Amino acid sequence: MKLSDLNAPAGSAKKCKRVGRGTGSGHGTTATYGNKGQRARSGGTRGKGYEGGQMPLARRIPKRGFHNPFRLEYALVKVSDLSTFKDKEKVEIKDFIERGIVKKLKDGVKLLSDGKIDFPVHVTVHKASKRAIEKIRAQGGDVEVLS
Length: 147
What we know:
Layout: H1 57-60, E1 75-78, E2 90-91, H2 93-98, E3 109-112, E4 122-125, E5 127-128, H3 130-138, E6 142-145
């Protein structure tokens, strides 16, 4: 048997419908778009959320307050979470992710003062509260805040 002897099973290979190739083809003139109307025109699709001229749902429902598009959301780490790093002198952002303390990085990591610490450690984070910095420096450690 050779490759040239192989044939597709009967009925599996179907010719594609070629539209807009003249009236004799059976799919000419309107090219299966029907007669006139929005859908027959070039670019005649409705936008997402369009409800046929009715006021769209996104505009009907009430809106309250202010949404700041520039707001930064930080992944929070407590001082008590640093107890898992007793064996390390220096703790960086990748260490929080590796140990599972930070699941999703978001816009950075912020260190909060919840909990106690009883060993010196050098921590690198994007933001830190004043009390958290005081607690770590009181134990002989240091906090490096990235810009």
